[in-house]
Design goal:
Number of helices: 5
Shape: elongated
Oligomer: single chain
Strand content: under 5%
Radius of gyration: 21 Å
Distance between the termini: 33 Å
Helix content: over 70%
Structural class: mainly alpha
Order of helices and strands: HHHHH
Mean pLDDT: 86
Number of strands: 0
Low-confidence stretches: none
Number of domains: 2
Largest sheet: none
């Protein structure tokens, strides 16, 4: 458990550092954009306005990812308390790659559970990790977002 806590803190510290660096980048782009707008020249104003959109999009994406991460951690904490966290016990190659055939078998079982209980955030959380193990990161993320929507619905109900 101490190792898990240490890994979580290291991951959090890395995320904070990257967010801070991205924040610095956004500030630099925004300040240059404002300087371009301040020139009063048509080209400068147009470019400045166009470049000002980029930091706004980046800020929105950062906030969106942090909110997802916080919700996923809350879900993981709740699953851990109930001793229902997904366990990564898949066989691996000497290089650390997951055996995809076993991952697909476990994926099929997780998908069947999610299909049987479409309103249960826990089944979608488990499905997300099954997608990830099977190598489909896009669907894993979609499943986590769906689990979060269901989880938030549960929290407000």
């Amino acid at each position: 458990m101490a190792t898990s806590s240490r890994v979580r803190r290291t991951g959090l510290a890395g995320a904070i550092v990257l967010t801070a660096l991205l924040g610095l980048y956004v500030w630099l782009v925004a300040s240059r954009s404002v300087a371009l707008i301040g020139t009063g020249k048509v080209v400068g104003v147009v470019l400045g306005c166009a470049f000002l959109v980029l930091p706004l999009v980046v800020i929105w994406l950062i906030v969106r990812e942090w909110v997802l991460a916080i919700d996923v951690q809350r879900m993981a904490d709740e699953l851990a308390e109930a001793d229902e966290l997904p366990v990564d016990d898949l066989p691996r190659s000497p290089g650390g790659r997951i055996d995809r055939s076993v991952a697909r078998e476990q994926f099929d079982a997780a998908r069947d559970v999610a299909d049987a209980a479409p309103d249960d955030w826990r089944s979608w959380y488990h499905l997300a990790f099954a997608y990830d193990a099977a190598g489909d990161r896009r669907r894993a993320r979609e499943s986590l977002r769906h689990a979060r929507r269901l989880y938030r619905g549960k929290a407000t109900a």
